[in-house]
Amino acid sequence: MKSPKKRWLRKGLKVTLVVLLIVGLSLVGFIIYSVRRSFPVESGAIALPKIQAEVTVQRDKWGIPHIWADNSHDLFMAQGYIHAQDRFWQMDFWRHIGSGRLAEMFGSSQVETDRYLRTMNWAGIAKQEIQQMDAQIKSNLQAYADGVNAYLAKHQGSALSLEYAVLKLLNPGYKPEPWQPLHSLTWGKVMAYDLGRNFQREIERTILLKTLTPFQVEELFPPYPQDLPVILPQSSVDTKNNLNLSTQIPTFPTEAIASLKSITKPITALEKLIGKTGVNVGSNSWVISGQRTATGKPILANDPHLAVQLPSIWYEIGLHCTPKNTECPYNVTGFSFAGMIGVIVGHSDRIAWGVTNAQADVMDLYIEKINPNNPNQYEVNGQWVDMQLVNETLKVADSQPITQTIRYTRHGPILSDVSPNLKQFNQNQQVEVPQNYAVALRWTALEPSKLVYAILQMNRAQNWQEFRAAASNFDIASQNLVYADILGNIGYLMPGKFPIRAKGQGRYPVPGWTDAYEWQGYIDFEQLPTSFNPSQGYIATANNLVAREYPYLITTDWVYGYRAKRIVEMLEQQTQPISVAYIQQMQGDNQTLNAQTLIPLLPAISLNTPRQEAARKLLLDWDLQLEMTSPAAALFETFWQHLLADTFHDQLPQEYFPDGGDRWYAVIQNIVKQPNSIWWDHRNTPKVENRDQILQQAFIEAVDELEHLQSKDPKNWHWGKLHTITFRNATLGKSGVAPIEALFNRGAFITAGNGETLNANRWKADQSSFAVTDIPSMRMIVDLGNLENSLAVHTPGQSGHAFHRHYTDLVDPWRKIEYHPMLWKQQINNVAKLRLIPQ
User: Fold this and answer.
1) Catalytic annotation present for 283
2) Is 701 annotated as ligand-binding?
3) In a domain, 604, yes or no
4) Can you tell me where the transmembrane regions are (predicted)?
5) Which tens digit of pLDDT belongs to each residue from 224-276?
6) Which of 156, 159, 186, 702 pairs as cysteine with 639 (C-beta 3.0–4.6 A)?
7) Is 364 annotated as a binding residue?
């Protein structure tokens, strides 16, 4: 007979299990409910206020919408509504970045980032743009905002996205405000910043002068190699690529350089939110004339390289007027930004275009001399001038509001005010540094822009002349634009506001108290680099040098042209007419040109074991392709990481350890020709090392690491298992709370390539792993002979809703260099059809 105590324990255990089961099921049910209630309605009919006529939204199997509308107002209102359906959390987050209001969402942890962003004043510049904007553009932006707000009116909290359910636990009082045209415009500023940040190179060079000679610093930033291609190859001498070091490199005192270093702190904080793209991370694009293609018409290819993001930075969409007419002149498909009106990259029924970052140097740091008796005055040509002072109030979710005073000089905002440790420069040699100083930023994006004009004008352009006219308004986030049309023309433009400097090349901070370094206006649009139907039958851009001879300075920080070289090689070596399938092969190419420099040096190094010898043979027999399953690829990239560490870590500050990108290809390519270069010698050893000793050390270390990480047998080494990509939600996916991160993050997925292969999945050699940091964020191939033959893919998916079927369904096609059709005509391959009707 069982005792009463045991029966009670058993009964109690059953009750506890039942309760736990009920609680668990309730929690699962709540999560499922919270997740699914934010999924967009994709079929049926929805009545909206302010919409003027019925709009049709058709989605394909990947969730990509095509909008068909009778007028421009309804077209852009529907775009705003659809963007909000799939991506409102992303839109809300990015507008808070653009306005410097992150602390309103996430609390005091973002106050310092907000201080930095408010100092940039992107929202203030956007307000000026709206005041200067013509009525039609303003109306289009308001229609977009009306669409977003129509969605917000009926969706709040977790009905918007799962992120809001989590945010409510941290910030119960947060409620998204209505969308404004201002919010769309600040997006352009954020992207201009993300694609630029050239002033960080000024800081880096200056900090390196603390421990290196001017010559050594310039060795780490070599001029563009003569054997690598330029975008416009007609000329032969680069008049702006030869640096006069005696006039370009200032000498700063040690304490001044240490102080300047602190300005990087808020920059790093912002990078954690938007990704670290910036200078020398770029994109590929090329356009091929019909004289070289299988169809006799041009083919255009583009794949912009950006930081890994979840959701995707791109939102694929089609915007179609029915019918296309003067009032509604749009019939375009391609890639948009959620939060921004129109299509950024894509094709219409007449033309196609693609973009790569121009690497333009449109930022300069000025050292301002401050009045010791009045900190709000600075010197201009011997006279004290009052600064402009602007008071800002930062709202903080978990604290009291904070007041910030932003100081402006004639050059722009004082960045040193948001870096408390940036306190003192002194006089020294070539650049006078005053006792009382501040550091100001001049940047073209801190002036009113017409970028939104350019986007909409490109969307409706019908020919090269109209496209050129549109590009004249593409004044910030300067890009290389490639063009093609159905008549068979191809072209290239580099639009933007490029400063003409009275003195200097923008490589170091300059004195602000004199006019000697002032900008003398901007390069006239008609004098900017351009090409139309070049004789070689193609144009290839990969952020590389635009021309060997050009009378103005664009930048000295070009990407070094290794990807461009591979594009040109593959175009030139193809003896058959080029097809869309061959372009796919090009976009998926994983050949590393870096190996061509280093592998020929390996036979000369001494090795100790048969396993090391076998590993060397692996590289000597390798095809140089960084394929996912390649053992040789795993070995070479590991060797590259150790080579950079063994060569430079003893001589550089940790924050400037080599990241392994294209610049370091050029640096190594130069110093391997000098077996006894000072760079090969370890400072912390008594003996003097040479090139072959460092190559030997790095190679043996790489073999040892792979044997430890993967296998004693080189045949089992696997590049993709080292080189993985994890898609992390930009906010809650980096919370540090594992269960929350698991809700939103996806991965890791194995990948191929590296940052300088055409399949540009970048990893950073200054990190502890080979994890992917930057990727071909989308790939597009447009066939102007048959637009329905055009292809595209982006990653990870169309939807911003965790657990939605389109959240990460494009990851595998993207990894495998697979594509989907860029649907074009109405009623083709529709999976869902939604009608937006007047209320």
Assistant:
1) yes
2) no
3) yes
4) 12-33
5) 999 999 999 974 334 344 444 444 555 544 444 544 555 556 666 666 665 55
6) 702
7) yes
